[in-house]
Amino acid sequence: MKYNPNEIEAKWQKYWLENETFKAENNSEKPKYYVLDMFPYPSGAGLHVGHPLGYIASDVYSRYKRHQGFNVLHPMGYDSFGLPAEQYAIQTGQRPEDTTSVNIDGGTDKEGNKIAGYRKQLDKIGFSFDWSREVRTSNPDYYKHTQWIFIQLFNSWYNKNSDKAEDISTLVSIFSTEGNTNVNAVCDENIEAFSANEWNAFAKEQQEKILLQYRLTYLAETEVNWCPGLGTVLANDEIVNGVSERGGFTVVRKKMTQWSMRISAYAERLLQGLNAIDWSESIKESQRNWIGKSVGATVSFKVESQKSNVESEQQYIDVFTTRPDTIFGVTFMTLAPEHELVSQITTPEQKAEVETYIEKTSKRSERERMADVKTISGVFTGAYAEHPFTKEPIPVWIGDYVLAGYGTGAVMAVPCGDERDYAFANFFKDQNGMQEIKNIFANVDISEVAYGSKDNVIIANSDFLNGLNYKEATKKAIEELEKLNLGKGKTNYRLRDAVFSRQRYWGEPFPVYYVNGLPQMIDAKHLPIILPEVEKYLPTEEGLPPLGNALVWAWDSVQSSVVSTQLVDNATIFPLELNTMPGWAGSSWYWMRYMDAHNEKEFASKDALAYWESVDLYIGGSEHATGHLLYSRFWNKFLKDKGFAPTEEPFKKLINQGMILGMSAFVYGFGVGVKNVNPDLGIIKPKRYVISRTSYLSAIKGEYDDVITNIVDKELEKYKVIGNGNVEWDLELTAFTPIHVDVSLVNSSDELDVEAFKNWRSDFKDFEFILDKDKYIVGREIEKMSKSKYNVVTPDDICNEYGADTLRLYEMFLGPLEQAKPWNTAGISGVFGFLKKLCRLYFDDNGLIVTNDEPTKDSLKSLHKTIKKVAEDIEGFSFNTSVSQFMICVNELSTQNCHSRAILEPLAIVISPYAPHIAEELWSLLGNTGSIATVDFPIFEPAHLVESSKEYPVSFNGKMRFTMVLPLDLTKEQIEEIVMKDERTIKQLEGRTPNKVIIVPGKIINLVG
């Protein structure tokens, strides 16, 4: 009998599926435990070995909790809406729903590409998912509930007095009886006051416009990240280094009318909630920084109209500052280039320069501008503002280090107290509109650097603030600003409302139609509003989103159905929303759908929600810190406010798995350029060479070894042959280029299959390799595993050759879960060998060799050390050290020649979370029925680790001469008697009597003299 992983694993995967072994119940006498993996997007590229790392860890934990008697919910589904599927559809002419389905279920797409399918890949690794609860965000039976949640948000407002979301009807009631003067709500700025009589007299349309200023989801003209290449708006976390994360397209800032969500209403609760959850401090800190709470004051600076082009209404520049104590140090103001006042206050003389600057900065993302602290740029508007106390004119600049979406989009610049203001002032020193830096700190030298500390500050040169410290001056400044009605104390948050529109096709349709340009919600009983068919997924010729191409996309308010767009009469049939929801819509509540995945009436029943409450353990990537995790917490808190979610926070414990990095392979291309060639004699195309890594490393330092000089001589000789000997090597045209190689073309000794490489891509066919002993050794480098780097290893290949249990153990063995670690396929064989060694404890070529013999003390010790270690490791998420312990245990039991059922049966259970297939097979071979998955985890018995004897070192005058094993319960006198009678002692003493016998029971024996 031999260990055949493919046969064993197929057998037990079929068994689990047929018997629904891992199906969780919504009502159970067992305690519940909910383990969740971050929602995967099912791309056609499928899984590589880096993807399952978190899934394996969560699966080990889930299986362990089942062994402990828990009713475990461990579901899986697919975040199947999004840009990648749509981009692929545009490129290949396929429907995104078709490619998404093939990516999940496997098959061949219309391009003829064979797709393994996420589901089959996941099953092959042996995960204990409850597949009966699978969800796909692109299925109408799922997104009908996303649409319903959107409607709830639209029909809610945030009451600051109750500190929660409430139904919009309560706000209407207040308006109709009191007006809005005393309403304490999170809402748009600059809302006009009205009385109850005025509200009741307003037309219905006017009332709806006012309510839009209070709703938790609302339409507004917003500065967005517009990506022309993708034809859509992107969130900040979808932009990397100023370009789109997906495709690397340019992103610019522009104003568009968008749906937005008032996540800002929940800023303080999102901040405080971090104290109640078990997340890593780094993730919490990322969210704290993103929320960005700061306490200070708002200040209004009057624009001096006589020095600007503003002739009518008086303009004010509002700023938020955390340092009102420094207000007398203001020497200039800076507005974000996108600030609405820029166009109004810029003087004619400065208009061209300002507009050029705005166009330039629109191509930089907010993240890029925030991160770039070295580049200093800005333009003077020509306008001035009035200092609230001194009445002095303050020049107004624009600069891209100020962002329209943060604070008020304007700053009062105090160079003596802020490094960025200091650098800006010095950079534009003596230029038009830039004043000299004022120092308002007593006994502080600012000649070289700004003084940003609040500690030990004494204010000077500041009129009524002179002699005060930071706290005193802050309080006094706010008091005086309030007297002038030019400012007040305020707590501010960096967190901005989240844009909730995408100008794309493949996303959740909004349940919205428009009457006279105002949004109306479709009644929930008519959901889902299903995504219509379109001929093409590009914007219309008029620039409308792809849904503008739909022929059937209008709302009949009488029949309550979607009808032809040609029937729109704006009387009973109205246009539907053309934008779709963003990718984070469906992923902001999916964990609750898993609790009751087939409920047609509601997203989950109250009973199911009350039973599962929230996720006990969430495992996923840290890259979602300020995107998905923040949005999920926001939606969960909102649903809690409305009485739907049972808890304030969705995820009790969060673990971020590290990345598995790929081991890339490189060859090093080298081309030779020449100069001083006589064109009449002809030009020869230089040969392209591949040199060694050693030659490459020398060359990039400007040191050319014999290999390179020989190549150069060889190329120059060609010109001499055609009669042009006056040629030189053009160093400027010399190209030293690392080229990624498909790792499948490289063996375990790093030797490249040169012919296979040349045939791999046509542009490599003519490369000439410089070999060393008929071999080319590639360069190696650890990078992110990616198809573009040709360093991807698929789990399918590992499973086919070594089995899923080997893959699972190896990924856990690579290192601590939360650390990044490189993949090295060479280590796989060692883990495979371990599993074969494990099997030899249970069976040999002739079959089962397990006995009913009493286990030895040593075997019991090995087993219980392992039970203790593995339980502690799983609870502490130290999975790599568990695998080490398994190896130690099997080695010890093999040395002990242990085949005792009393040892091997519990050992199979202990290893089951990590290597479930072989554990099931061994459990079955031992004569047990049913699955090992729900058998109780063995109980650690400390008595088996208590030593009954001790191997003592016996020393003479401090030098150890021999050892002897003695029972630990002996007294000092008994130990001395045994030692003195031992023949080895007698021989050492040679008839002498020691002066002293030092004995420490359990530790040492030393005879002196």
From TrEMBL:
Nucleotide-binding in keyword set? yes
Mind telling me which InterPro entries this protein's record contains? Answer: aa-tRNA-synth_I_CS, aa-tRNA-synth_Ia, Leu-tRNA-ligase, Leu_tRNA-synth_edit, M/V/L/I-tRNA-synth_anticd-bd, Rossmann-like_a/b/a_fold, tRNAsynth_Ia_anticodon-bd, Val/Leu/Ile-tRNA-synth_edit
Documented EC number(s): 6.1.1.4
Q: Where is the Aminoacyl-tRNA synthetase class Ia domain?
A: 11-155, 780-810
Tell me the ranges covered by the Methionyl/Valyl/Leucyl/Isoleucyl-tRNA synthetase anticodon-binding domain, including all copies: 860-972
Q: Which reaction does it catalyse?
A: tRNA(Leu) + L-leucine + ATP = L-leucyl-tRNA(Leu) + AMP + diphosphate
- For this chain the motif 'KMSKS' region maps to 784-788
Q: Can you say where in the cell this protein is located?
A: Cytoplasm
Family designation: Belongs to the class-I aminoacyl-tRNA synthetase family.
Protein name, per record: Leucine--tRNA ligase
Its source organism is Flavobacterium ranwuense
